[in-house]
Amino acid sequence: MRIALFVTCLADGLFPGVGRATVRLLERLGHEVAFPQAQTCCGQMHTNTGYLREALPLVRRYVDVFEDCAVVVVPSGSCTGSVRHQHAMVARRFGDEALARRAEAVAARTFELSELLVDVLGVEDVGAYYPHRVTYHPTCHSLRLLRAGDRPLRLLRKVAGIDLVELPDAEVCCGFGGTFAVKNGAVSTAMLADKMRSVLATGAEVCTAGDSSCLMHIGGGLSRLNAGTATVHLAEILASTRDPR
Amino acid sequence: MTTFLGMPYAPRGVGHLRGDEPFPVAARAALADTQLRRNLGKATRTIRAKRAAVVAELPDWEELRAAGQAIKQHTLAHLDHYLEQLESRVREHGGTVHWARDANEANRIMTGLVRATGADEVVKVKSIVTDEIGLNEALAGAGITAHETDLAELIVQLGHDRPSHILVPAIHRNRAEIREIFLREMPGVDPGLTDTPAALAEAARRHLRRRFLSARVGISGANFAIAETGTLCVVESEGNGRMCLTLPGTLITVMGIEKVIPSWRDLEVFLQLLPRSSTGERMNPYTSLWTGVTPGDGPQRFHLVLLDNGRTAALADPVGRQALHCIRCSACLNACPVYERAGGHAYGSVYPGPIGAVLSPQLTGVEDNASLPYASSLCGACFDACPVRIDIPSLLVHLRARHVEEAARGRRLPTAEAVAMAAASWVMASPRRYAAAQRTGRAGRALGRGGRIRRLPPPLSAWTAARDAPAPPAQTFREWWQREHGGADGSAG
């Protein structure tokens, strides 16, 4: 299958390994990956901070760039959620019904990575090898916007060598919330403290999730404390094999 | 884009819908209160577990939620009809109906009604709406003492405190603190009072019995008002409400206009949704229903005050109006990780938590509660918990957009944030500008050590105050792709 990658602005600029891992994983599974280079950002930060007028050109760009793609994969539950639940709303708010309909059509073909693997490609065992103790944080938008359920866990359970341990209070938000982390830094940090307590209680070496943004938050806290637990994106675990590349 | 002009908001200077400080400032103080953090964590965790257990018992819970939502949508779409029907039925059954445009008008009406009885004290239950309008202060100004009779409201009143939760107004207090308040403030209390729940409840019971037996006027809120028969409904756990509603000769009930429901069949839906969502019980212990005045039984004078106080302004917003569906169960508060840590006082309004963050700004105008729509990480736990399916996260985003738009209209120079957002939008609208910005951003590598940045300038300093930031990588994904695939979009396969 030919799959278009929407890498997200965060992974593109700060976590390129997540994009490379997504490409490596899908190619290993026998698929062809395209990276439309005119892509930029889904506009979620603008939308969620109240700047809908500023989000509108980004919605239009996403639709223009991915409209002709049969399937789009996004290594982010949050950006997928924005495409699926906000793009048409933003277009309608400014009276652009035509754009809203086009946005809905593209959104229906846009999938978060674990959704793509399990629902579209029908695979759970991706042939990965990752010999580490790992705990999984389900991220709010994967959980409650996409209803991704246990798809990421089903993928992780099939990874060879992994020691997967359950995260206590997994469904509680880590406190990132986009600009919330800055506008309400104190509450955000209080939420982060509790999330880190849960992560550290597992004794895991790695905390994983399907969103670079939440991982940047949890990882930024763990790094500040020199806690000895790293954050690694789901795509990077699933892309790992015995063959070190 | 619709604008919402003309409908009056809840007036300033009366009642408790506006805080003294923006949410982030008030929250910071609350976060440092270790006792509060423990009390809230324990209480919300307990209620969440109870709710989850009783909700799981009902196979048709999702259908019930959808029914509750549909009934509220229908009622609000025909609110004028159902309010007038309610008014005529209450009048037919011997009650008097008053329409109050706002807090000041409602307070004036109710103070006048109490004065006319000659009473100088009243007993109260279901008091949140009277807290909204500051009724106790208005009564005090007229020389009338109000006695709260809901146990938690009593604790709040005796502690000279404010409610911090819709259903459990004293959730921020633990039993040791409650014992101290009783010993200090309750006349004639046993000085050997212990902090066991039974001892505290018995002390409150003795204290309240005297009030119930002497009070000539009761004042209540309402959970529902059934238009087809003019029947009012109050649900509660203690029985103190039943006393307030039946013992005094005069009963004054004040309710927001959104509390009306069309019929008894609709009540059936809400009486399943409400107790499971609020206290985590299958059924609440006391459900009081009354229709006007019944000769020789209960209050012989009944007044119903229908309160607007900004509700029509909320109704005028086609997106925002669903906040008026709220049945005040407080499941969203208990589910909210922000509320659990910051507590109710940080919201500055009698309506705290996620629902408060979307309701209070609509009642007061967004300008007066501008920090509340941002007091959420948009995690969505509130929407999942809401028994009438209010899409609180989408409402929060909508109100943020309203705030940004209204603020832009109201000032000549844009804020630094607005400039940054516009610049980011301009950059990201073009892949060429975007790639150039990424190259510029790579200068940030100089700030990093070992791949992490410890300190960033404002406003990002709020991030690095407690978290490291990743240093930009040597190569963006885009650059890697171009190196691997040249200018082509497709992969080599």
Task: Give an overview in words.
The complex is a heterodimer of chains A (245) and B (493). Helix content of chain A is 52%, strand content 11%. Chain A is of the alpha/beta class. Chain A folds into two domains: 119 residues; 107 residues, Rossmann fold (3-Layer(aba) Sandwich). In chain A, strand 7, helix 13 and strand 8 form a beta-alpha-beta unit. In chain A, helix 4 packs across helix 7 and helix 5 packs antiparallel against helix 7. Chain B has 493 residues and is an alpha/beta fold. Among the domains of chain B are: 260 residues, Rossmann fold (3-Layer(aba) Sandwich), CATH 3.40.50; 70 residues, no CATH class. Helices cover 48% and strands 11% of the residues of chain B. Chain B has 22 helices and twelve strands. Chain B is globular and about 90 Å long. The model of chain B has no long low-confidence stretch (mean pLDDT 94). At the A-B interface, helix 1, helix 2, strand 2, helix 3 and helix 4 of A face helix 1, helix 15, helix 17, helix 18 and helix 19 of B.
Q: How much helix, percentage-wise, in residues of chain A?
A: 40-55%
Give the strand tally of chain A: 8
Instruction: Give the radius of gyration of chain B.
Output: 26 Å
Report how far apart the termini of chain B are.
46 Å
As laid out across the biggest beta sheet of chain B, the strand order is 1-10-7-4-2-3
Structural class of chain A: alpha/beta
Oligomerization category of the chains in this entry: heterodimer
Largest sheet of chain A: 4 strands, parallel
* Uncertain segments of chain A: none
Query: What's the domain count of chain A?
Result: 2
The helicity of chain B comes to: 40-55%
